[in-house]
What does this fold into?
Amino acid sequence: MLSTKPAERLVRSYDTVRQEVDQELEIAEGKIPEDLRGVLFRNGSGRMERGGIFYGHPFDGDGMLSRFAFTGKGIRYRNRFVRTRWYLDEENSGRIRYRNFGTNIPGGLLNNAFRIRFKNAANTSVLHHGNKLLALCEAGAPHEVSPETLETHGPFDFDDMLRSPDPVMRAVRGRYLPFSAHPRLDPSTGDLFNFGVAMGIRPDLMLYRVGSSGRMDPPRSVKLPALGFLHDFALTRNWMVFFFGPLTFDIAKMLLGLKPAMACASFAPQRPTEIILVQRNGDRVVRLQTDPGFIFHFSNGFEDERARVIVDGPLYDRFPEVDSFADLPRKGFGDFPRMIPTRFVLDPEKGTVNREPLSEHPGELPRIHPGYVGRPYRYFWMSATPEHWGGPYLSGIAKVDLERRKTLFRDFSPDLTSEPLFVPRQGSDGEDRGWLLHTVYRAEEHRTDLLVLDATDLSTACLARLPHHESPGFHGTWLASVE
It folds into this structure.
């Protein structure tokens, strides 16, 4: 078990960012690769407290976008908070005014009872599609921002397609249908697929397809078995695949505001995980069951020559329960579940599920070559820990070779790494021929560096220093230069 020191570093990495800047970065090591031209956008929690009260979970922090423009002259950096109406309300009042995943409004039951519309922090990911840049969070609609200035334009509803059509449910769920932070782009068609969980007595799994032009089809829906937590999905040639982990919710305590939603969720090991396969271009739904577990993120999914569906992702043996993020330095990580990359082989016709580990390195936030989404693939990269560690302290980058079943690991301890985003080399068709872009939080100095690694061997090509610290954050995207 880890000591509380790593937990202290993790919590400190999420200190509120006090600066919004626009400047050239100092290149402290190496040089910018000649074929790396474009813009990296990243999103994460930039403000984690209000009025001296720390938010209860990193998912609750106000979204802060970072923009790294790679040009022939250098790297131009800009950061800016996503100015949602929730952010502006709390910024103007100087206090917490909205409930969220892990945070209640100060003041007890009176201030929280029956407040079930959570804050949209716009903090989880960022998407560029149909000439729009969108800050994403699963609590509601995306927010459109300027790709150049990062100025917030406001909620984006895909020409009313995300407007909740039922006035009764609109009163409960809010104006917009939820649009998750984990869309998947089919590289062969340019179509974007996504989902959202719309709350109700039996929640609706909303399904979206957005064409390459940015136009959304009318949403479809599938009933979920119960209230739960779906964060990501896998896309294959014919299927959208969802893993519905066995969670139970103390709905009474959540409705009455006695506890934040996160603290009302419990893992139910006596129940199976339900796997829901929804046909991309049809009405067929297949439901399978497997041993209890939980998956936040998938690296990829594809279909083999036997029409089996292969899905890979870091598997937790149970849902990670954290009472309060701010209490981690006092409590430590405790018995935090390990995050083991795992392959699931699903047979929709036979109704079978088999699984096997892909690496012994615990890790999260897996990314692949974007041209291999939904196709057989060989490599993925992830933020990872040494094999003997537990807990969510991701201190390194791992490259997993699925063909050879080998893992290459580079450790940055005692520092923290972010999601490694893969950018293909221009003119190369090699699956691992490219660059990994990620940040490293320097724990002892309380600052952050941007690194460009060679994806083949994880060596450093370039290191740039930011003028302040950033949290490891969550997810990002790359927009290649059109020059």
User: Anything to note?
Assistant: Residues 4-13 form the longest helix (10 residues).
